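FAQ: What does a ligand-bound record look like?

Like this one, built around zinc ion:
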Amino acid sequence: MAFSICPLCGEVMHGLPDMDDLAAWYAKNHPDLPVGSVITYSCMDCTHEYAIGESVISRDREDPNVYAISSIVRRENQPPLLIVHTPNGVRRPLAVTQIRLVKEWESETAKPVNGYF
Ligand SMILES: [Zn+2]
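The answer part, i.e. the structure of the complex:
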């Protein structure tokens, strides 16, 4: 099984969607590496184009909150900084490596709380 690692957050993933034929994939994309070698690949949560109002959850398992993005700070050639508000109204900037999208299967139980803005 081939693995990929996100160079931003370090998430380990099991291959890529187009890796059905490993030998063909490595021959095309990484002929310099043995078939099955670990590769770097930016994960969906780090490369997602986040939008104001979108629901995100902290990657810190101690933080159960779902946040709605209230604003986004962008700098050229850098991942964005996402601004959310905690349930008690504190403005909190978060890097994309600190949050992830609310997965579809979580959306029924993890809805944004009104008043986060
Ligand atoms: Zn990542």
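Follow-up question: can I read anything off the structure? Yes, for example: Confidence is low (pLDDT under 50) at residues 112-117.
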